[in-house]
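Forwarding the complex inputs:
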Amino acid sequence: MTLIVEGYFPELPNPNVCYNCFRCTSGCPSAFFIEEFRPHRFVAKFKWTELEEIISKEFIWDCSKCFKCIDLCPQEVSPAVVIEYLQILVAKRGKPIPKAYEEMIKNIIESGYAFPVQEVSDRDFETFTREDLGLGPLRKPSTITQLRKILVKLK
Amino acid sequence: MNRSILVYVGCFSSTKQYALEMSNRVVLEAFDSKYEELHVMEFPNPACCGHPIRSIKPEMWLYLACRLLAIAEERGSDLLPICNGCYLSVKEAKTVIDSNPKYMAKINDLLKEEGLKYTGKTRVYHTIEYFHDVITPNRIRELVGERTVGTINVAAHYGCHALRPKHLPQFDNPKNPQKFENIIDAIGFKSIRDYPMKLECCGAPLMAPNPVLGLKVGGAKLSGALKSGADLMLTTCPYCLEMLDYRQESISSISEIEISMPVMYYQQILGLVLGFDPRDLGLNFNMSPVERILERFKK
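Prediction (whole assembly, two chains):
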C-alpha cells in the first residue's frame, strides 16, 4: 500500500465492531432513493467478503459524502470511510472510475484547476467571461511546472 | 498586529460560480476597509485543493491541500477557503499531517520542489466562522446600521462539509449549529433556526457519479426549506448554491411538488443590504426566483 492509503486511514475504522444497527442506512440520503445503496451492507461485506469481490460486484459510487453516517455510527465504524476506501481501491487497481473524476485529474495536472474556465450565461442569456466581470484572467499557479511534476509522481 | 487572512476561492468558483468570488470580494473589502485589524488578502499561487479527487487519488489530494497550508504559513497568514469542499479538504489534511510527523516529513519532501515548507502554523477558517468569530455579529450590525428592508425569513443551509464529520475540529455544534443563523439575524433578517432537513445534503457531490440521484437529494432539501415558510435560502458554498439555485428547475421537473425558492450566497444578501449593485454581487447569475427578494431592495 502507498503513502496515503496507509496514512490517510491510520485507523481504518474497524468494521468488525459494527452492530448492523442500520443507523447509517436510516440517515443516508442516497439510501433513501436507491434501494441497492445500503451503507451497513457495505460494512457487512467488508467484514465477510474479499475486497476484490466487493469492488468487482458492487456499485460504490452513489455515496454523496454527506458524512452523516460517520456521525451517526454508535461504534465509530464510519461507513463513508469504508466506502471511500473501496473507491480508492478501485482506482488503485486501475478499474473503471466515473468519467468525471478522470477529467478532473487530467485538468488538475494540466492547469492546476479541476475544471476548465467557463463563459457563463446570466438570467437574460447574456454570456460573461471572468474578464467581463472584472475578475481578471484565471490565475495560473506560479509554480505550475514544479507542481505538475509532483502531481505526476503522485498519480 | 493581527494575522492576515488569505482568501482561497477554489476551482469551482474561479471557473464557473463567479458570483461567489464577486460577492465575497465586495463584502470582505467593505469590512476590511472599515476595520483595519482584519487584513483580508487574496491567496497567492492558487491551485486545486484536491477535494474533488480525494476518493480516487488520495495522495494527490493530501499534497494539494497541504500546499495551500504551506503557502499560507509562508506568508504568516491564516487561510479562508470560501468553498465547503475546499474547507473540509484543507482542515482534514491539516488534521492528518499535524498529528503525524512521518507524513509531515513526506509532504515536506515534496513541498521543497515548490520552495515551500509546512510546520503546522496555519489556522483554517470557515466562511461562517470568519463572519461570526472574527468579523462578529456586532460589526455586521454596525456596518449595516440603519439600513432595513423589513423581515425576510431565511433558511440557513450550512452544507455537509462545514460541520461533518464531527470528529474533526469544528467551529459550531455539528448537531445543532447556530452561528450561520446568528450572522443572518445580524443583517436584520429572521432566520428559521429549526426546519425540516436543515442538516441534510444538497446532493451536489452526486452530480458526477449519478445526476438523477443528486437532483432527488437536492429536491428533498429544498422541500424542507419550503415547508418551513422560508422566503429565502442562504448558503456560503458554491457547490450547494449551484445545486439548490442553478439546478432548481431540473429538480422541480422531477419532484412531486413545484419547487420555487430564492437561493443566494450569504455574501450576496449582505452586499445588497450594504447597498451594493446586484450585478456587482453576481445576482444576475442566480437562476432561482431571486427577483422576489430583489424587489424589496428597490427604492
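The longest strand of chain B covers residues 5-8.
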